[in-house]
Amino acid sequence: MLTEENIRFQYINSKHMKARTLFLAASFIATSAMAQGLKSGIDRNNMDLSVKPGENFYEYAAGNWMKTHPLDAEHPLNGAFVDLEELNKKRIREMVEDYAKKPQKQGTVAQKIASIYNLYMDSTRRNRDGYAPIKPVLAKIRAAKNRKELIKLMYDLDAKGYGTFPVGFGMTVDAMNSDRYIIGVSQGGIGLDPEYYTKPNEQQKAVVAAYKSLNNDFFKMVGNSPIEAKKKMEAEWALENQIAKVSYDQVKSRDPQANYHPMTWEKLLKDYPAIDWNYLLKVNGYPNNGGKVDVGQPEPVHEVEKILTTAPLESLKAYMELAVISSASGMLSDKFSNRQFEYTKVAYGVKQQQPRWKRALSFVQGIMGEAVGKLYVQKYFPESSKHRMIELVKNLQQAFAQRIEENTWMTPATKTKALEKLNAFDIKIGYPDKWQNIDSVFVIDDAKTLFENVKGVQEAAHKYRIAKRWGKPVDKKEWHMTPQTVNAYYDPTTNSINFPAAILQPPFFDPEVDDAANYGAIGAVIGHEMSHGFDDQGCQFDKDGNMKNWWTEEDKKNYNARTKVLVDWFNKQEVMPGLHVNGEKTLGENIGDNGGLNVAYRALQNSMKLNPLTDKDGFTPDQRFFLAWGRVWASNVAPQFVAYIVNSDVHSPNVSRVNAALPMIDSWYKAFNVKEGDKLFVPQAQRAHIW
After folding, report:
1. Phi, psi dihedrals of residue 408, rounded to the nearest 5°
2. Which helix (H) or strand (E) holds 28?
3. In this predicted model, what pLDDT tens digit does every residue of 324-333 receive, in sequence order?
4. Which of 431, 589, 508 has its CA nearest to residue 85?
5. Residue 7's pLDDT is what?
6. 11, 420, 546, 547 from 543: Cα distances, Å
7. Which residue, among 65, 656, 643, has the nearest Cα to 349 in the 3D structure?
8. Residue 353 maps to a domain
């Protein structure tokens, strides 16, 4: 994924290269006359021209923008992603509130959108109800008389979406056979990343303290005395800590091979006997086991077995109670959301809670995201943008193929496999060709509480997905982001690159700007997602989306040596005093940026052979390309959120995606005359030359 924040690109059914080239040539010739009247895409007012590009390109490209756009109280960071998200919120608010202001026919999409929004906005009703919606569930947990009864209840509640079972269980795509669904079992059960429990730094320690304080208060807010609340919090934390100590850390979790342990259902029953898998299957609504299971992380699953058989009954009850409270807190009274925000302030550095209407919109989109997306694309996504994106993607694909063919470190056999995968990319742009229409299977009843309605939606959606998917071939045309999401992603099991409509706007893509800036922004985004197909994870999957080795031993060794350059380089990036980027954890995204920039730059050079560009606003086309990249990542960030990104995200902080990424790109040096002695200079022999 490209994403800027964790509040944070795959394929093309192409014809032969010759046919694709002819199409591109024709289209560029047709638009070349128009291109001369397009803008540069660069605003000098955003730049700090007092800074040398080779000293701090981030400041040079966007220093004045950062000075004139201070961080507001609602966000942990600002920038292009947040600007577009806020623009979308205003657009979607108009659509949603137009429905919400007047009665709608029961059962229509308009009624469901309006009802969810109004139910969330009705703080008077939710504050009056307090935590009443979950009282019956909490009472069941507290009343359980023995371990057998309690664990059965744990399975039952987990199937209803309460998160009470400390193991992930459900349908997943088989990594070795991506055309089929199997049952997946995975680590879970903890509220923070494993590193927060096992080896926390100072910022992580602060988050842990805030997390424990939040949980303590949650217990008090549902009727426990202060003494009982603290006792329950500590007991629950002890179980989380026990699971975390054997859970895979964020680096190991990125290794597809290390997280794939297939077995038969019979072997699952034999090797993990302390968990009633047959009952879990039944209560979750699966008609059969499908014959094959993937236990992603065996060690933490075994640890949960120990917990279920040996942990004190009251500790298990505390764990389940907190899971119920946490899963429901956003649907209860303001006391719960306000207390949750106090934790958010510590974890992310946000100073002010977003207004209720913004939270309501996020809630609506969590339930009716696709339906809202339909309305969004009808109003705000012209077909011309989709056609232009298809053209850009094909041009990027051609450039990527050239760079594969030209590289000197791969044998012809591996190059052939790489090109096959590249040419098999499925390109998804804007919105799905076929909508799932999942909203058709659930009802929103104004007479019921927000919580009751959401539980009904969860149950109906779960049944729908099982009926639609289980025992059937994987539909690789499905989308996993809504059209209004400002992001993009690559999916290795479908070998697809996905670009929702919302990202296809300035400053990423601007139809009034010439190719230089567009290739530096959306072009590099496209290249980033393509490169994910060949990053340290994606390179383990073939053209059909199956985890399969298509490398010669020597080529893979060369590849690993080249990617290690990026690991070592990013390990050196100190983004706050004493806080460095983790080069292993961020490797996939850093390969994405590195490949994306190189491929997009080549695509720009290809396009300029047919459609020459001139200097504009004092900058060459090459310079505008890199300046556009710098502008995309311009942001002010709260220190806590910088720490959060480093501690918990697979992406490097924004400043590193410019000042650490560009020194690895040969063409950047020539564009800005960066020389030895400049702070950002890296000798050519020490740069990462991968894709």
Report:
1. -105, 5
2. helix 17-35
3. 999 999 999 9
4. 508
5. 31
6. 9, 7, 7, 10
7. 643
8. no
Residue type, 105: K
Residue 434 and residue 318 in one domain: no
498 with 605, same domain: the answer is yes
- What angle separates helix 147-159 from helix 135-143, to the nearest 10 degrees? 150
- Give the chain's mean pLDDT: 93
Q: Both 292 and 378 in a single domain? A: no
Q: Is residue 106 part of a domain?
A: no
Query: What's the domain count of the chain?
Result: 2
* CA gap 588, 567 in Å, rounded: 10
pLDDT for 267: 98
**How distant, in Å, are the alpha carbons of 31, 311, 431, 616 from that of 511?**
12, 61, 19, 17
**Three-state SS at 665:** coil
Report the DSSP beta bridge partners of residue 292.
Answer: 264
Domain for residue 378, yes or no?
A: yes
**Residue 189: is it exposed, middle or buried by C-beta count within 10 angstroms (0-12/13-18/19+)?**
buried
Whether residues 528 and 633 share a domain: the answer is: yes
Question: Which residues face 619 on adjacent strands?
Answer: 616
Tokens of 615: 């200097």
SS3 427: strand
d(CA 64, CA 75): 20
Whether 492 maps to a domain, the answer reads yes
Q: CA-CA distances (angstroms) from residue 403 to 61, 358, 541?
A: 27, 44, 20
| DSSP 8-state symbol, 332 | S
Predicted local confidence at residue 21, as pLDDT: 16
| Pair (492, 581) in one structural domain | yes
User: Which residue do the tokens 């190991």 mark?
Assistant: 252
Spatial neighbors of 317 by CB under 8 A, at least 6 apart, are 141, 142, 144, 150
3-class secondary-structure state, position 655: coil
Residue 636 has pLDDT above 60, yes or no: yes
Q: Are residues 77 and 147 in the same domain?
A: no
Please name the residue that has the structure tokens 């049952």. Answer: 183
- Mention every residue, 6+ apart, whose C-beta is less than 8 A from residue 460: 441, 442, 443
Q: Which amino acid is at 601?
A: Y
Cα 380 to Cα 20, 98, 320, 504, 580, distances in angstroms: 29, 17, 44, 10, 40
Let me know whether 291 and 395 are in one domain: no
Q: Which of 281, 308, 331 is the last residue of a domain?
A: 331
Q: Which domain holds residue 137?
A: 132-331
User: What angle, rounded to 10 degrees, do the helices at 109-121 and 450-469 form?
Assistant: 140
Domain boundary among 331, 352, 385: 331
pLDDT, one tens digit per residue, over 119-140 is 999 999 999 999 999 999 999 9
Cα distances from 23 to residues 16, 148, 173, 661, in angstroms, run 11, 66, 36, 33
Residues 556 and 620 sit within 8 Å (Cβ to Cβ): no
Tokens of 658: 């410019």
Per-residue pLDDT band for 3 (boundaries 50, 70, 90) equals low
| CA pseudo-torsion sign 253, 257, 260, 266 | negative
Residues 76 and 185 grouped into a single domain: no
Find the CATH number of the domain harbouring 208: 1.10.1380.10
The structure tokens listed for 267 are 């072997």
Task: Give the residue ranges of DSSP H helices in 293-333.
Answer: 298-310, 313-328
pTM: 0.92
CATH number at residue 658: 3.40.390.10
CA distance 493 to 474: 10
In the prediction, which pLDDT does 16 show?
25
Helix or strand holding residue 597 (H, E): helix 587-610
pLDDT tens column, 274-315? 999 999 999 999 999 999 999 999 999 999 999 999 999 999
**338, burial (CB in 10 Å: exposed 0-12, middle 13-18, buried 19+):** exposed
